[in-house]
Amino acid sequence: MKRSSLALLAALPVLAACVVPAPYVSAYNGASVNITLPVGGAVGSAYTLATQTCQRGGKGTSELASSKVLPNYGGTEFLFLCLD
Question: How far apart are CA 84 and CA 78, in angstroms?
């Protein structure tokens, strides 16, 4: 029992390093959605989240309109338009 507990504790830092930051919705108004992607996040996941968010609001798809780097946050914010 002690041996398996020690092995698990030793593996935690390695497993924690494998976590990829997830994008999140920072603003939504029905016609557009802002997705913030932390540094190290996968850009494709931002596109997926934008499309899913727009579809929940009754639109068919999303299209990237612009992006800006957030220097104080260390990530990027993407603006997607929600289209029919």
Answer: 19
Per-residue pLDDT tens for 56-83?
A: 999 999 999 999 999 998 899 999 999 9
DSSP string for 3-33: HHHHHHHHHHHHHHHTPPPPPEEEEE-SSEE
The predicted structure's pLDDT at residue 63:
97
pTM here?
Answer: 0.77
**At a CB cut-off of 8 Å and minimum separation 6, what does 64 contact?**
47, 50, 78, 79, 80
CA distance 2 to 25: 43
